[in-house]
Amino acid sequence: MTIEGAFQQFLGIEDAEDSAIELALINAGLSGSDQYDASLRAVVEGSIIDLLFQMYIVTSETESQLSISRDPKLMRERLLYLARKYGRKDIVNALTGKVTITNISRMR
Question: 95 and 83 in contact (C-beta within 8 Å)?
Fold first, then answer.
């Protein structure tokens, strides 16, 4: 299995654009045509987060006669799972609306 194939399996969304997948892999420093092995799981799953967040914002698209609709609840759950797993507090905060103050000295 290629890294791109593993990326698509972990993503779990069939209608993701190939160019978006390719960009996510490049940003993670991966080549989609290379062979996937289990040691790459964290890098591949981590690279899914930004693409999934981008796709979550637009849950339905229509172009001519083609219409694509995704379940926002399932996408949100998957996105929160991955974001928490890989420490992406920016994504967790954006989805949950919780803000954490880490340095109170600037508020005085």
Answer: yes
| 3-state secondary structure at position 20 | helix
The H-or-E segment that residue 62 falls in is strand 60-63
Mean pLDDT of 15-20: 83
Q: How far apart are the first and last CA of the chain?
A: 55
SS3 99: coil
pTM: 0.70
Q: How many angstroms separate the CA atoms of 46 and 37, rounded? A: 15
d(CA 78, CA 66): 25
* Residue 85, pLDDT score: 94
Q: Residue 36 — left, alpha, or beta (φ > 0 → left; ψ -120 to 50 → alpha)?
A: beta
Q: Is the pLDDT of residue 99 over 70?
A: no
